[in-house]
Amino acid sequence: MLKETLRLAIPVAFSHLLIMTMGLVDLIYMREVGTVAAGAIGIAVAIVGWTLTVGLGLLAGLDYFIATAHGSGDRETTYRYLGQGIWLALATGVPCSAFLYFGADHLALMGITPDVAPIAASLLKYLAPGMLPLFLFGALRGFLQATSRPLPPMLALLAGNFLNVLFNYMFIFGHYGAPALGARGSAVATTLCRFSLAVMLVIYVLWDSRKSPIPWPLMKWNTEAFFRLFKLGLPASLQMMVELGVFGLSTVLAGNLTANALAAHQIVLNMASAAFMVPLGIGAACAVLVGQSIGAQNPVRAAEVGWLGLKLATGFMTFTALLFFLIPNQLLSVFTQDPVVIEIAMQLILVAAIFQIADGAQTSLTGSLRGLGDTTTAAVVNFIGHWLIGLPISLALCFSLGWGVLGIWVGLAAGLFVVACWLLYTWAHKTRKHPTPVL
């Protein structure tokens, strides 16, 4: 079972790392155009992250439906839900793009500092067209992973990273005949990469169907299946919005402080997010394997997969916590040489080290519960842990007690520990005998 779990988890985790690498490359390039630009891209990424959770969260329901159908050998249901996933990507991509484009002119309402807001608004307008292709990529990627084919999405993301480096080089600095757009060039590069990712997976799925043709009639609009997918994906979307939203809000709060504090916050947040990609991949693998086990009428194996995923995720995050504790200066120097930014970031990276294990645990457990068709528990727990406990602590420490950006991070850590403990209890309770699917 370990071998099968790793065979799926490693490419999925690597895919998440490749997604994160695109953001890290953007941040490294931003070092060349100044601290204010780095802060602006941090704001833009946070707002786009909230928007992405709508579509990608709704598509998370594909894990359960496609994995259980694949586990039971039901090819018709597998393609029926792939079709509904594509319809859902189309239905969310257009309004999300419109929200980013037209909402970009109203950043002042969020209290963003005047030197950062105009740059962030321009970035959002260039990022807006990339929503639809990214959601389409998400639907196809979910289909391939749930049918135990994680390698094609990983290879597409690997190619996408090379393209991202090239496009950043071209459009930020004006090489190879491209216009020199500065910070806006990074947003152009990101959007072009998202279109490229969608095209690559569409081509692969069509090529892969040459031996076993796609049953196109099954992929047409199916109201019942669409709303079953929507019903399961909605809590997952809300959970992602709650969890990522509080981290995005932390960036907005940091944007009300100094530019140096915002830059330090964004650097450490990207480092913590990079580490988070591995347990996120493990959680996605757990969702697939638990779902396939349920589809194959093997609840004992489903429970074993969930516990194994928890061990793998917390083990990896223990390693990253040690790195954050032992070599923080070396890690931070990759992103900035500014001594003031590094001094602030040194405090934040120690807090990030403390919450690594809790972050890994809650992520893998969320995936395992999704494999059972339970997306509601994680949504409720994340709302309580992050917004009713963690956020008030962040606000009190940052603004009332004057801790600044460090107070924001202490509150984030408190919320993560609450979520991890609660989800651990839930999974233990559900697997005390044998796990049973919610739907």
In words, what does this structure look like?
The longest helix has 37 residues, at 259-295. The chain has one domain (2-430). It contains 16 helices and no strands. The protein is mainly alpha-helical and 439 residues long.
| Major sheet description | none
In whole angstroms, how far apart are the ends? 25 Å
Give the integer mean of the pLDDT values: 85
- Please identify the structural class as seen in this structure: mainly alpha
State the order of secondary-structure elements, H for helix, E for strand.
HHHHHHHHHHHHHHHH
Strand content: under 5%
Q: Give the CA-based shape.
A: globular
Number of DSSP E strands: 0
Radius of gyration: 21 Å
Estimated helix fraction? over 70%
Number of domains: 1
Helical element count?
A: 16
Secondary structure elements and pairings:
Elements: H1 2-30, H2 35-59, H3 62-71, H4 75-103, H5 117-127, H6 131-146, H7 151-173, H8 183-208, H9 223-254, H10 259-295, H11 299-326, H12 328-332, H13 339-354, H14 356-371, H15 376-400, H16 405-430
Q: What's the gist of this structure?
A:
With 439 residues, this protein is mainly α.
Q: What labels would you give this structure?
A:
16 helices; 439 residues; mainly alpha
